[in-house]
Amino acid sequence: MIFSKTLLPLFLLLVPHASKAATVRRSNNTDIKWGPCKLNTTLPVQCAQLPVPLDYTDKTRSDTLNLDLIKYPARKQPKRGSILLNFGGPGQDGLESMLAYAELMGPTTGGYHDLISWDPRGTGKTLRFSCWPDDTTGYYAAMGNSLAGSADSTVGKLWAEGSIIATRCHDQQKETGQFVGMAFVARDMMSIVDALNEDGMLRYWGISGGTTLGATVVAMFPDRVERVVLDGVMNAHEYYNSFGEPEMVASTDATWEEFMRGCIATPNNCALAKNRTYDELEAVMTELFDTVRNNPPVFNGTVVFSYDLFKAHIFSTLYSPSDWPGLAQALEDVLQGNLETFVSRVLAFSIPSQDQAILGIRCGDKKLRTNKLSDLEPVFEQYRKTSKWFWDWAWGYDVTPCAQWGFEAKERYEGDFQVKTKNPVLFVSNSFDPVTPLASAKNMSSGFEGSVLLTHNGHGHLSLTQPSNCTNSIIQNYFLEGKLPAPGTVCEPNFPLFDPAASM
Ligand SMILES: *[C@@H]1O[C@H](CO)[C@@H](O)[C@H](O)[C@H]1NC(C)=O
Ligand SMILES: *[C@@H]1O[C@H](CO)[C@@H](O)[C@H](O)[C@H]1NC(C)=O
Ligand SMILES: *[C@@H]1O[C@H](CO)[C@@H](O)[C@H](O)[C@H]1NC(C)=O
Ligand SMILES: *[C@@H]1O[C@H](CO)[C@@H](O)[C@H](O)[C@H]1NC(C)=O
Ligand SMILES: *[C@@H]1O[C@H](CO)[C@@H](O)[C@H](O)[C@H]1NC(C)=O
Ligand SMILES: *[C@@H]1O[C@H](CO)[C@@H](O)[C@H](O)[C@H]1NC(C)=O
Hints:
38% of the residues lie in helices and 13% in strands.
């Protein structure tokens, strides 16, 4: 998944269009030796290691890196070629995530393919990017956890915190931090494809941040594309070329408004509905946001009910519509003066361990640097214009450290994502995704000749979160038969919002 901030939390491209393409090394065609995994799981997964070049751009270096791989074997015969999976972030590990996603994604592919993932560089034990080794509290202390909108002084504070993080990460990671960018991960993917000794073609399903990785590997290796599904699409132009990624929040307001609309439409399963109209609920929420910001209540006599945590938690929950009735109950309790439900939910939300990997990959991949906060003003304004309710959720967290980052990815995709691929790519986007909007999917799809964008008329982050048999069968037909849906196809989710059956 794309990072979820919690609290403490070209024209016709025939040649690979990356900076040092001509001099790249390739890994040897090794057979992969699969064996048991050292993971706590009952799934029938197997694991392996694959040596790949540490530095694809430097022929004189012979050092290699062992990638940790995981395979969830095909359930059906005859077996087809493997599908690689990446779960986003960028910075989400592959092995643990496979355990969480295999039984969700496996059936959707049809079951004839081995599913394969790996810990991308920067994650797991592979050049794990960590500026406060063995100490997440140091990192969370440094980043302060304030939202830019919490007070006028916060923007400067976030800039200063960003400089602490950037300096610390440079000191800790200057030896290997340059090797963790997406272009190298894309080359690792092709090393895996080669080592599988199948047909040498890429089959891939990338979700969330895995779509930017997907766009990158496809743009670098367009003639090796067999099937690529990109679901929950990020704007890869912004990822590489902008100080921030304001388009990320282009559908966040609409998703939040859908939360309120769905609530009013389903009063039996939404504690906030009461006898309110939509306009009344919106007014109540506007007032609540203002109160928590300007005159916050105190929890259990000891803790300020923080605006930053309040908003970050609501934002995070917009990812998962099945949890919307729970959020509605917690908000209604807050309105009644009972903060316990909401606070317990925030405390139960686990801190993602990969936040530092996200920064390491993202910041090295970004092109722009500055030492003046004022240079960020245009992108700051862009965030404010893009989302009235949630503009300040994303601004600051990665924008300020990345702008002051001390090193560059050794290789960066420098093209314009105008690509003609050997086989067409399938894009999938929710109508209401709080963090990867339909606008970004349209943008990316427009550059990939012959690609089709399937609109999943659902809510939350990724099509998987409000499932649809229609969407799933289109993805399956694509992987099995190479069939694309007609342009403009829209799929409905199986259950409407706030349907009690949807949370089972
Ligand atoms: C590939 O094989 C050559 C010769 O056996 C060896 O020198 C080189 O280190 C290998 N490269 C990788 C990436 O394993
Ligand atoms: C392994 O997973 C089970 C089920 O999730 C859990 O109850 C158990 O505590 C885990 N064991 C270890 C060693 O983490
Ligand atoms: C809704 O309004 C009706 C009529 O005013 C009232 O009897 C009922 O108690 C209200 N229901 C709720 C949940 O507030
Ligand atoms: C808040 O206080 C109540 C009553 O003292 C206690 O039961 C509860 O565990 C406290 N909640 C938290 C999250 O600390
Ligand atoms: C895609 O997004 C980038 C970055 O915002 C923008 O420069 C470009 O014009 C967009 N392309 C299309 C076709 O919308
Ligand atoms: C979706 O597919 C499942 C499994 O085939 C089926 O039980 C269910 O009724 C379908 N739901 C809808 C809304 O079509």
